[in-house]
Request: fold
Amino acid sequence: MVARSLPSTLLDTVVFLFSGDESLEPLGTGFVVGYPVPGREGEYVPLIVTARHVIEGETTVSARFSGSNGGPIFVVYELPHLQREGDFFLHPDEGVDIVAFRSPHFAETRYQPIPFDLVATKETFESEEIQPTDRIVFPSMLTKFMGSSRNYPVIRDGSIALIPEEEVPLRFPYGSRWIETSQRVILVDATSIPGASGSPVFLWPGIRLRQGKFNSGGGKLHLLGVMHGFYPAAREVVEVEASGKKTVFEENTRIAIVFPSWRIHEILQTSAFRDRVNALAGPR
Reply:
């Protein structure tokens, strides 16, 4: 991926997700991962990955691709049908805010799948010494301007603020219900905007510290995780003249939550996923 124009490659990894097939209310961002077909060199299964909360509670989701001959193209996915066919994949831990579903190949669409070997594992984080201060970039939907001739994601950037070794308490909605959980997440110094949920978060392959020395770059553009959303701070305001009345409100801390990419690997290591891919591959 680094050998190509980096901005254009980033833009072509993502799709825009909408509710339904007519009203088309924007939901968030998804991205395409190419999972290699067992025993068939050069072939892959396209998987659309996003944050689970983006599509939770939806029955019909439309993905907007850039067209190979110009103009955006909408592809409609009926989620109950995907579930019946075994093409809808969740993490065994409900608190992991990642979902993947299979997409057929469409010759009319233009996209650049993220090669599976760029999806960072826990071992990748250790071997590449991925750490706070490392720069990250993420292409995402800008709901105010998406483009009319093709998809125009905005490329946002920031840096890793913290990769805590302990679980972080989280509370967020899945459709009409709330999830309370504690998870291993990455906290990044970046502002998550409406439409950014589900975006792929990449390690910028530029200058960074490794083994206490500056590395001039040239590394891989690893996928580090899936954008969840901003990390709210609750702050109390005490109104003295109001007999101790307190107002609690949330503000954007410019810290965003990213579910790490090794959670994608955990989804794709489940027996349901492997059985489905083997069935698609057929006899070898």
Q: What stands out?
A: Residues 271-281 form the longest helix (11 residues). The first strand starts at residue 14 and ends at 19.
